[in-house]
Design a protein that fits this description.
The complex is a heterodimer of chains A (489) and B (502). Chain A is mainly alpha-helical and 489 residues long. Helices cover 75% and strands 1% of the residues of chain A. Chain B has a domain of 222 residues. Classes of the chains: A mainly alpha (489), B mainly alpha (502).
């Protein structure tokens, strides 16, 4: 083959059809960008975004599974498709609540929409990367978009502080990840997960692998805000505009969990003993510190930020049991965490539009009298995060439990139990303030239609899945078997 | 243990779980005025269903009747599996009765009526579910789901210290039940490695032949969950707080139904699952039971708050259930079950009486009361019957259960039986003290009290109606215990089959 022929064959288009959801999201983002320049119609922008996201969601159903595009740098399998569908859906439920919130806060910018779409695109690239470079590109795309989004309250000191911390620490995290990738490349000569896996096994561990693996785990833990790499989380979550926090806590977090699982299983299947211990320790620390600090928070938004750290602990605890059951538990918990996080944070953003609302726990006094339906939804989210049946949070913890005890990791199961009890302290506090105190003011909270839709859909799903989780079990066991099948590929 | 099943023609059990839930959903969309009638009618229907099951139950041989099973989560082997044996049926019937009584009583509620009844209806569904579920995941779901409405009931409609009491109740019970969960999952995992089946069904787990050391571990894990719910000494401290702060109907449910869940758990799970460990722990359980009986009886006699006295007396009665259960013979177990029912009636009636007194005098303190009997004869009579039944007067329900429990215990440990028997005297002491201080002592009354008492109204129709079924049942069980003993005999034999054979 001559060089010319080689070039020509290299110039053939990649399989673009397999990239349909990503392309739709990208094009929507560009259209929003253009429209935002020339038109001041806020309604138009939100409609375009919504339609684009719905199209992208639908397109995940029509593309063929098992496709590889960009010469093996991008894989479309059931795992990535299902996560993409959920990420798009989560973003959709967040985006429809943007306009009313930012208008109430007097900080409306069109940038919110396309930056969120770019961040979504980044997370979508992340979950379908079989290759550390693709993963890195996706990670950076989503992270940089989110640094900007977190600081969009330009006149608010806290927002700027949070965004700056997020930028510095997140930047350090990506730097660590790139070091890890470089070291692993130096040791194995490949960026491809499967190639790396072929080179590694428990009996040929050396500094290259161990160093690379440790750095990679640290970087990923930082992105997932596991203790002790969590310091950016409370500030970034508290400072960011609340719908953006909802996006960061649900979509970005879940994509991170998904990619953690994917990289660990695909690239390091034969050293699972080593990384499962690392994740077990990170999980235990996250549960303990996240829950204890959350107990002391008076600001509900900040409390939820710490509770999301604790949830990172519950979720990555499943990695301590590197079995199909553990992976299924992680996938299940990640998927349902989207529901709880979006529900709780969008509820906060709805309440925040009221004048004088500061997210302080005292503001919740007597909410059940003023807005019974809102209080009921919050009650459902709180009990679900606490893990009380018949909410789906219980099913999530049950799975992690089953996986841990099934792999004989009793100590972590006991930590999980004890920390769940501790967490009752702050989740119950919200319920107590809502239901058992008299309201301090007569201010009614008006929620817009999209907010009502979002909150009620999430609350109803949390309850229905709590009683009938079978479909999600199907998803998670299917995905975990897909992952495990790829190990031998 | 092989078990026979009689499938339900009509899914009565599922109906009686779903009906309160549907009613709770409907209440959200109706006016406040309809809340009371809807709840009373629904609880009456549930009560009638459970009464029908009580009479349709065939107690000649042991079988799980009205049995339903549907696959639920095949991936981890969970299915929806409900059915009753005589023990479950007894508890379901007691639950349905207690809820009917508290709904009738609650007609005088004025604060946030709709939410009140929604919480109680959800609670009713969860309580019935606990007693009929044969799948451990469903059992746990109902067991925990009951925490949410009870937490709200104590926390919203309670008295001054309600938030503290509600939180304490929640955290204590949550703590215990998570260890219960670890135990159950541990057994589930052991079963998978031992037999290769994924199942959370009771009937699979009961045939697991655990080695002795594992039996001990799992027994302890489960016992922690149950002991907190019973509550056994030294885990009882949440109970007086919760009882004192809860609204009257909440106390009734707490005493009549929720406490039974713990003892039900011991009888249903600990005995058949861990027969050797149960035998091994007899001395510990006896000791804890006797301490509970004596210590809390002493505590009761030194209280001045009516509800606190009744709450401590509950712990004391639960001590009888514990020693009766762990006597591990037919008499003891029958006695324990009868004590459970009987305590359901008596404590419910006593808490209703306490609520009645508070409604009229706005005080629970003994020093503010006294000498009422002459002015409210009807109430005084009913209160007297309930107090006597609680103290264990022959001819009323309390006596039968305590007698059988002691008889069973006597066969195993004379010392325990003697100590527990002696404390019956203290038991009679505090009950009489309670009644005497609140109802008699007319001669010591200052004139302004007499003037106040003369204005008292005796019971109204709703109050009378909620009292009367309890009183009737105290007499029925007390005078004709054979009926209920016959009902539960085969079930007790099946539960003990692994321990005493046959």
């Amino acid at each position: 083959m001559s060089i010319l022929e080689q070039l020509v064959s290299g110039l053939t288009l990649p399989n673009l059809f397999a990239l349909l959801p990503e392309l739709i999201v990208l094009i929507t983002a560009l259209i929003v960008f253009a429209v935002e320049l020339f038109s001041k119609s806020r309604y138009l922008i939100s409609v375009i975004t919504t339609v684009g996201l719905i199209l992208a969601f639908l397109s995940t159903f029509i593309i063929k599974e098992g496709d590889i595009t960009f010469y093996g740098l991008y894989v479309i399998d059931t795992y990535s498709l299902l996560f993409k569908a959920f990420l798009i859906l989560g973003t959709l439920f967040v985006v429809i609540n943007f306009r009313s919130y930012f208008e109430a806060k007097n900080t409306y910018y069109g940038e919110y929409y396309y930056l969120t779409l770019f961040a979504l695109l980044g997370t979508m690239i992340m979950v379908s990367s079989p290759n550390l470079v693709t993963f890195y590109i996706g990670l950076e795309l989503s992270a940089i978009s989110m640094y900007i989004l977190a600081g969009m309250f330009r006149k608010d000191f806290k927002s700027k502080e949070g965004a700056f911390k997020y930028l510095i620490i997140g930047g350090a995290g990506t730097a660590i990840i790139s070091y890890a990738i470089a070291i692993l490349y130096g040791r194995t000569g490949s960026f491809d997960s499967l190639e790396i896996a072929k080179q590694l096994s428990s009996d040929n561990l050396d500094y290259g692998i161990v160093g690379g693996l440790i750095l990679l785990v640290i970087g990923l833990a930082l992105k997932a805000s596991a203790v002790p790499f969590h310091q950016w989380t409370p500030d970034a979550y508290e400072g960011a505009p609340t719908p953006i926090t909802a996006f960061m806590a649900s979509v970005a977090k879940v994509a991170t969990y998904a990619i953690i699982l994917r990289i660990m299983v695909e690239a390091f299947p034969f050293v699972s003993k080593e990384w499962s211990l690392a994740w077990a320790i990170l999980a235990a620390l996250s549960m303990i510190i996240g829950n204890f600090i959350a107990l002391r928070q008076d600001n509900v938004k900040r409390m939820l930020a710490y509770s999301s750290i604790a949830h990172t602990g519950y979720i990555v605890a499943a990695l301590a049991a590197p079995t199909g059951m553990g992976f299924a538990a992680l996938i299940f918990y990640s998927l349902i965490y989207i529901l709880m996080a979006i529900g709780a944070f969008i509820l906060l953003s709805g309440l925040e539009k009221t004048k004088g609302w500061t997210n302080h726990i005292n503001d919740f006094k007597g909410l059940a009298k003023k807005n019974p339906a809102v209080a009921l939804a919050m009650l459902i989210f709180m009990f679900s995060m606490l893990g009380i049946p018949p909410t789906v949070g219980f099913m999530g913890k049950l799975n992690v439990f089953l996986a841990l005890i099934g792999s004989d990791i009793w100590w972590l199961a006991v930590v999980l139990v004890v920390m769940s009890i501790i967490s009752a302290g702050y989740y119950l506090r919200v319920v107590i303030y809502m239901y058992m105190y008299e309201p301090e003011s007569k201010v009614q909270h008006n929620l817009t239609v999209p907010e009502v839709i979002t909150i009620s859909v999430m609350a109803v799903l949390v309850l229905i899945l709590g009683i009938y989780p079978t479909i999600f079990y199907g998803f998670s066991t299917l995905l975990s078997s897909v992952l495990l099948a790829s190990v031998g590929r | 243990m092989t078990v026979e099943f009689v499938n339900a023609g009509i899914p009565w059990i599922t109906i009686s779980i779903l009906l309160p839930l549907i009613a709770a959903g409907v209440l959200f969309f109706t006016t406040e005025k309809l809340a009371k009638p809807i709840s009373i009618v629904v609880s009456l229907i549930v009560f009638l269903i459970s009464t029908y099951m009580l009479f349709a139950y065939d107690y000649s041989s042991y079988a799980i009747q009205f049995y339903e099973k549907y696959t639920w989560i095949p991936q981890i082997g969970v299915s929806y599996e409900v059915g009753v044996d005589a023990l479950s049926l007894t508890m379901v019937w007691l639950t349905a009765l207690a809820f009917l009584v508290s709904f009738i009583w609650s007609t005088n509620i004025k604060k946030r009526v709709r939410e009140y009844f929604v919480a109680f209806l959800v609670l009713e569904a969860a309580c019935i579910g606990v007693f009929v579920a044969w799948d451990l995941v469903w059992f746990y779901i109902f067991w925990e789901a009951m925490l949410i409405p009870m937490f709200l009931i104590i926390g919203i409609w309670g008295y001054a210290e309600r938030i503290y009491a509600a939180t304490k109740f929640f955290i204590y019970t949550f703590f215990g039940s998570l260890f219960l969960l670890i135990g159950v999952i541990g057994m589930y995992v052991y079963q998978y490695f031992d037999k290769g089946i994924l199942s959370t069904s009771y009937f699979d787990l009961v045939n697991l032949h655990l080695p002795f050391n594992l039996q001990v571990i799992f027994f302890l894990l489960l016992a922690l969950g149950f002991a907190i719910k019973v509550p056994m000494w030294p885990f009882h401290t949440w109970l007086p707080a919760a009882h004192v702060q809860a609204p009257t109907a909440g106390s009734v449910i707490l005493a009549a139904v929720l406490l039974k869940m713990g003892t039900y758990g011991f009888v249903r799970f600990s005995l058949p699952w861990f027969p050797e460990a149960s035998k091994y722990f007899i001395p510990v359980m006896f000791a804890l039971g006797v301490i509970a009986i004596i210590y809390t009886a002493m505590m009761a006699i030194s209280q001045t708050h009516i509800k606190r006295i009744i709450a401590y007396s509950s712990v004391s009665h639960m001590g009888f259930v514990t020693i009766g259960t762990f006597a591990l013979n037919m008499e003891g177990l029958n006695g324990a079950i009868i004590t459970m029912i009987s305590h359901g009636f008596t404590s419910a009636a006593l808490f209703l009486a306490a609520g009645w007194i508070y409604e009229r005098t706005h005080s629970y303190e003994l020093k503010d009361l006294g000498g009422m009997a002459k002015f409210v004869p009807l109430f005084a009579t009913l209160f007297m019957i309930s107090a006597m039944a609680s103290a264990g007067l022959p001819g009323l329900s309390g006596f039968v259960g305590e007698f059988l429990s002691l008889l069973g215990t006597f066969k195993v440990s004379i010392l325990t039986a003697v100590l527990a028997g002696l404390s019956l005297i203290v038991g009679a002491g505090y009950t009489l003290y309670l009644y005497h201080k609140s109802m008699f002592k007319e001669s010591l009354l200052p004139p302004e009290k007499i003037a106040q008492w003369e204005k008292l109204k005796d019971m109204n129709a709703a109050e009378f109606l909620s009292f009367i079924p309890l009183i009737i049942m105290m007499f029925v069980i007390g005078l004709y215990p054979t009926w209920w003993v016959n009902l539960i005999k085969t079930t007790s034999a099946a539960i003990l089959s692994k321990i005493i054979g046959g």
